[in-house]
Design a protein that fits this description.
The structure holds two protein chains of two kinds.
Chain A (H helix, E strand, L loop, with lengths): L21 H11 L4 E6 L2 E9 L13 E5 L2 E7 L1 H22 L5 H14 L11 E9 L3 E7 L5 E4 L1 E4 L3 H14 L7 H15 L7 E9 L6 E3 L2 H22 L1
Antiparallel strand pairs in A: 1-2, 1-8, 2-9, 3-4, 4-5, 5-6, 6-7, 9-10
Helix pairs in contact in A: 2-3, 4-5, 5-6
Chain B lengths: L24 E6 L2 E6 L3 E3 L2 E4 L5 E5 L2 E7 L1 H21 L10 H14 L6 E9 L3 E7 L6 E2 L2 E4 L7 H7 L6 H18 L7 E7 L2 E7 L16 H7 L1
Antiparallel strand pairs in B: 1-2, 1-10, 2-11, 3-4, 5-6, 6-7, 7-8, 8-9, 11-12
Helix pairs in contact in B: 1-2
Chain lengths: 255, 239
């Protein structure tokens, strides 16, 4: 990076001469080093998946979840620095609760996404803070949009997606998701099928060097009653079993 | 404060608790919309300060508010709510500017009424139509509670017509039936309540928009004896 060593990367309050804010770029690097987080919007809902990398063997299985519900109708999957992602989730929960108490109704997807974008953006404007080292996927159901999937980035950028991926192996994952969306021109992909695709992508893009990981899967769809929930255990286990089998088939073919 | 009230009337408005305490307001849902109705008497004690006032204020095209209690209090609550709704519409940049979520408006009104319950004398009814929940009516009486209901009545005149309204209310009325029902209810209240009177104002809201009507006194009888009222309990016993 051309700005390194010139002093332009020490604070978000100074642009580099070619118009970059390096601290924001570095926050993006922190995200790139986190496990894969991905999501797909289907005809009947949104599915989120995360490759949770395990730093130690003694961690209790299922602890330190990277996917969290922020309201009955909204949930988030984070990657990058886990504590930063948790802070973003906490803020999203506060926004949902504040909106509900003030307006007496669930927060619409667009307003939640916009408010979170403003929040993240604030951390790119002052020398006294650092931008979040985490990106989050936001899955919401509301009256206006039906089901929606957003990606929130450390820069404060928010975009709505059919499907996307962030973190390690995101490029390969994005290609896989694009293939899915292209193959599904009729828009008939169901969340049940998407769960299996996401698990497959998490396993197929996993880097062997990282060794242990857990595949977390959550969704908000018609089958979950329009509420953000973990994918039912049986379905999640089936998806993971299929993903592992597909991986072994690939290895056999390679050998 | 000089209200311009002739001294020979012997009325001191500041001693009588300010302007407009007596009223009849109501709102009901029908098949596809809502009707809001109100009388038009604004009084300061026994003096009628305005005989053709408008107690149904618009928050947006699709949400309207019937006001009872202090005119000053309710006008200001309405102005605050309008402002909050405008701010919310700016946050929802894709929103249709003339429209609002009825439940949201009712909740904002309730918040203001409840937080300032010690200072306000304001009873309000919110009625409107939105694409999310269709026609809706919410009552926000004096303490600041929020009551979703198919129809509700308020103001001093309302007390006289609870029985009649409960007795004659029908679910799934047509627009014409609902307008006639509200008109009849308010004219009954006007006959009994000395602080309700003047014209009857109606606002009808449905998916196509809102419509205001004003019914002058000669269109509805104003005195109890003139009304061919079927006295449900008494006549039934006599028969």
């Amino acid at each position: 990076m051309s700005g390194i060593g010139t002093g332009y990367d020490l604070s978000t309050t100074t642009y580099s001469p070619d118009g970059k804010v390096f601290q924001v770029d570095y926050a993006g690097k922190a995200v790139d080093n986190g496990g894969l987080a991905l999501g797909i919007k289907c005809k009947d809902g949104v599915v989120l998946g995360v490759e949770k990398l395990l730093a130690f063997k003694m961690l209790v299985p299922g602890s330190n979840r990277r996917i969290a519900a922020v309201d009955r109708h909204a949930g988030m999957a984070g990657t990058g620095l886990a504590p930063d992602a948790r802070a973003i989730v906490t803020r999203a929960r506060q926004e949902c609760a504040q909106y509900l108490s003030f307006y007496g109704d669930r927060i619409p997807a667009k307003i939640l996404a916009d408010r979170m974008a403003h929040y993240l953006h604030m951390f790119t404007l002052y020398w006294s803070v650092r931008p979040f080292g985490a990106s989050t996927l936001l899955a919401v159901k509301d009256h206006e949009l039906g089901y929606a999937l957003y990606l929130l980035e450390p820069s404060g950028e928010v975009q709505r997606y059919f499907g996307t991926a962030v973190g390690k192996g995101r490029q390969a994952a994005k290609n896989e998701i694009e293939k899915l969306v292209k193959a599904d021109a009729a828009g008939s992909l169901s969340c049940r099928d998407a769960v299996k695709h996401l698990a497959r992508i998490v396993y197929s893009t996993h880097d062997e060097k990282d060794k242990a990981f857990e595949c977390e899967l959550s969704w908000i769809c018609d089958q979950s009653g329009g509420e953000f929930r973990r994918v039912p255990k049986e379905l999640a286990e089936e998806a993971i079993t299929l993903a592992k089998a597909a991986l072994e088939d690939d290895d056999m073919a390679d050998a | 404060m000089d209200y311009g009230v002739p001294p020979e009337l012997g009325v001191d408005p500041s001693a009588s608790g300010g302007i407009s305490t007596g009223t009849t307001i109501m709102a009901c849902v029908y098949d596809g919309g809502v009707v809001l109705g109100a009388d038009s008497r604004t009084s300061t004690g026994v003096y009628v300060a305005n005989r053709a006032s408008d107690k149904i204020s618009s928050v947006t095209d699709n949400v309207w508010m019937c006001r009872s209690g202090s005119a000053a209090d309710t006008q200001n609550v309405c102005a605050y709510v309008k402002n909050l709704v405008d701010q919310h519409n700016m946050e929802r940049s894709d929103a249709d500017p003339g429209m609002a979520d009825v439940k949201l408006v009712a909740n904002l009104t309730m918040q203001i009424a409840y937080k300032n319950k010690d200072k306000l004398s304001a009873g309000m009814i919110i009625g409107g139509w939105d694409s999310k929940r269709g026609p809706q009516v919410y009552g926000i009486p004096l303490g600041g509670s929020l009551l979703p209901c198919p129809f509700t009545i308020g103001g001093s005149g309302g007390a006289y017509i609870y029985g009649w309204c409960d007795d004659t209310w029908k679910e799934g009325m047509s627009r014409e039936e609902a307008e006639a029902w509200v008109t009849r209810a308010i004219s009954l209240a006007i006959t009994m309540d000395s602080s309700s009177g003047g014209v009857i104002r109606l606002v009808t809201i449905d998916d196509k928009g809102c419509n205001k009507q004003m019914l002058e006194p000669y269109k509805h009888l104003m005195t109890y004896g003139e009304l061919p009222v079927k006295r449900v309990g008494v006549d039934a016993m006599a028969a």
